[in-house]
Amino acid sequence: MISNLRQWAIIGFAFFCLLVGLATIWLPIPTGVPLLALGAFLLIANSRVGRNAVRRLRKHVDWLDHALVWLEERAGRPFDRVLKTTRPLMTRHRRKREVEAGLSRSTAGTDPALTSTTSPSTPAGEEKRTQESTAKQPCG
Predict the structure, then answer these.
(1) Total structural domains in the chain?
(2) Whole domain around residue 34: which residue ranges?
(3) Which of 10, 83, 1 is nearest to 43 (CA)?
(4) Which residues of 10-38 are buried (b: 16+ CB within 10 A; e: fewer)?
(5) DSSP-derived secondary structure for 115-135
(6) Does the residue 126 lie in any domain?
(7) pLDDT 10s digit of each residue in the chain, 140 long?
(8) Residue 126: Cβ within 10 Å count
(9) Where is the chain membrane-spanning (predicted)?
(10) Same-domain status, 42 and 52
(11) What's the CA gap between 95 and 136, in Å, rounded?
(12) Do 16 and 40 belong to one domain?
């Protein structure tokens, strides 16, 4: 019961930090950003719903994901561990790279039976014979 009460108190303090940080972000005194960071860190560390919300945001907002990856690399060990729990299963920029790599692999034509083997100097008749010979070779 006490640990549950403690967790609720921490989550309440995290929301308080987020609200005060949003209210003071436009002031000339730099209190808004540190309060937002503290509130987000406490919410991620102590709430499954908070972790999932940040994970969803990272999945759909590419610049936020890049910024948090940059922060993960430079943060200390406890902060790094907490931020890594919010990584999406496959981040958007990795997915884009894999899609681009997959498209370049599929257009490269790695399967000789499916691609034509003609070069500018190969006559059309030799292309057919090459495809037929690769199709007749036993698998082994």
Answers:
(1) 2
(2) 9-46
(3) 10
(4) ebeebeebbebbeebeeeeeeebeebbeb
(5) S----TTS-HHHHHHHHHHHH
(6) no
(7) 557 888 899 999 999 999 999 999 888 888 888 898 889 899 998 989 889 998 999 888 888 888 888 888 888 888 888 888 888 876 556 666 777 777 655 554 454 444 444 445 555 555 555 555 555 555 54
(8) 13
(9) 7-27, 33-50
(10) no
(11) 38
(12) yes
**Quick one: 52 and 76 in the same domain?**
yes
Query: Are residue 72 and residue 57 in the same domain, yes or no?
Result: yes
Residue 89 DSSP symbol: S
Question: Is residue 104 domain-resident?
Answer: no
Q: Are residues 36 and 62 in the same domain?
A: no
Both 35 and 67 in one domain: the answer is no
Per-residue burial over 87-124, b if 16 or more Cβ lie within 10 Å, else e, is bbeebeeeeeeeeeeeeeeeeeeeeeeeeeeeeeeeee
- 74 lies in the same domain as 54: yes
Instruction: Please name which of 44, 118, 30, 115 lies closest in space to residue 78, comparing C-alpha atoms.
Output: 44
